[in-house]
Amino acid sequence: MKSKIISLIVVFTSLQAMAQEKEPGMKTLGKAIVDKFPTTRTFDVQYEQLGPSNYDSKLFGDRFEKGRIESHSRFKAAFNMPFYASKSKRLVLTTSLRYKYESYSFGDIYNYTSTQTFTRGNQDFNYWAGAVSATYMSTLFKKPIIYNATVSVDGNEDNLQRLKGFVSAIIVLKRTPSTTITVGALGLLDPSSIVPVTPLFSINHKFKDSKWDMDFILPQRLLFRRELSENGRISLGTELNSESFYLNLNTSNLNGVYELNQLELKSGITYEYCFTPKIIAFVKAGVNNIISTRITEKGERTNKYVYDHKEDAQGYFRVGISYNLFQRK
Questions:
Q1: Which UniProt keywords apply (predicted)?
Q2: Would the pTM count as exceeding 0.90?
Q3: Structural domain of residue 70, as residue ranges?
Q4: Chain-wide mean pLDDT for the chain?
């Protein structure tokens, strides 16, 4: 699931340059992508603070420890830039960079094996990823279709860790002033993926005689949005997010490089404000539900995890600002 969500966003990243396409349909599609995903804009910076929560964990299927995460924060930065476009603008090559810093502070922790309670110092993690994408836009059965191929690499502060890739095709089934519907398929070239091919579906619909619209992207989000004044917008709904980073472990049970994967379901409210056509800021707040947190050996499928834990729901607060070089009035 984690790879599907990340890949879905990276598919859309390459499309921002298409916003300059002369054909109205292509231009509309490109603008819609960068509007939905701040991380696909030229520059994007975000900070997130999550509230305290209790957790209970297992190691190799046996009860391991329970404790409290007192504070958890994330800082993210993203950069996207097309570096080649064909004369027709139908073929675009894009490079993307991502950086993330996560910090945890803990309360008391109880170990089931030793029956001892102890404290753990703050833990900090760095994650980075880079990708090169080729996107080609054409028509199929007189409908716009987008083909994409992407190669990505990620790692931590110690080393490059994994090389991944995927291909996709998305066709615009319907595009009217009020409704846009797309369907497609995503193929993951990653041995850790449980399902190598997954369907894609999205619908955006503006309600008649209303300032509200619905934005649904399978499996990532369901949002209801409304314009507020000339430069603001509010959104209510739920988004499925994934987080990951690498761990270098050297214990009696775990030795080597491991990967932590976490799925989160965030429900709440978002307010966006457009300072200029190129600069947009947002504030998000709500409830964060942890669906799963698992640690696997590097490159293993997530269903072959060595560690997992359950975690209480927690409040969250996120702020961000982005700059889109290609945005026009």
A1: Signal
A2: no
A3: 2-323
A4: 85
